[in-house]
């Protein structure tokens, strides 16, 4: 049976992965503990949408970091901090 993991499962995969497990393992262990859902068309489409949204969000973060790096490029940044008598 194909399932989509909702949490990391040792020996089977990580959260969000599609994996193939036996029917009994899925019905008796994974489903009751809310560790996985059955991989039907609706769940597969939802998984694809979540992966696309995560990739888009990650790209936005990278773009923002690059913009900040360009702003700081060539500038001197000084950070002052108090130090004790022993240099800590």
Describe the protein's architecture and organization.
- The longest helix has 32 residues, at 41-72.
- This protein is elongated.
- The chain has a 3-stranded antiparallel beta sheet with strand order 2-1-3, with helices on one face.
- The chain starts with a strand and ends in a 16-residue tail after the last helix.
- It contains 2 helices and 3 strands, in the order E-E-H-E-H.
- The chain has helices spanning 23-30, 41-72; strands at residues 2-5, 18-20, 36-38.
- It has 88 residues and is of the alpha+beta class.
- It has a domain at 2-59: Ribosomal protein L9, N-terminal domain (Ribosomal Protein L9, domain 1, 3-Layer(aba) Sandwich), CATH 3.40.5.10.
Give the arrangement of secondary structure elements.
Blueprint: E1 2-5, E2 18-20, H1 23-30, E3 36-38, H2 41-72
**What is the total tally of β strands?**
3
Instruction: Using the 3D structure, state the CATH architecture of the domain at 2-59.
Output: 3-Layer(aba) Sandwich
Strand order of the largest sheet: 2-1-3
Mean pLDDT across residues: 91
Largest sheet: 3 strands, antiparallel
Under CATH, the homologous superfamily of the domain at 2-59 reads Ribosomal protein L9, N-terminal domain
* Count of helical stretches: 2
Low-confidence residue ranges: none
Q: Beta-strand level of the residues, as a percent range?
A: 5-15%
Q: Order of helices and strands, N to C? A: EEHEH
Q: Which fold name is given in CATH as the topology of the domain at 2-59?
A: Ribosomal Protein L9, domain 1
The value of Rg in angstroms is: 23 Å
Q: In one word, what is the shape?
A: elongated
Query: What is the CATH class designation of the domain at 2-59?
Result: Alpha Beta
**Structural class, from secondary structure content?**
alpha+beta
Please identify the oligomeric state.
single chain
Helix content: 40-55%
The end-to-end span amounts to 58 Å
């Amino acid at each position: 049976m194909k399932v989509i993991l909702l949490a990391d499962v040792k020996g089977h995969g990580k959260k969000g992965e599609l994996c193939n497990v036996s029917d009994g393992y899925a019905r008796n262990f994974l489903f009751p503990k809310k560790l996985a859902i059955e991989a039907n068309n609706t769940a597969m489409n939802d998984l694809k949408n979540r992966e696309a949204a995560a990739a888009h969000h990650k790209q936005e973060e990278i773009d923002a970091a690059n913009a900040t790096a360009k702003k700081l490029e060539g500038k001197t940044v000084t950070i002052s901090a108090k130090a004790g008598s022993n240099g800590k």
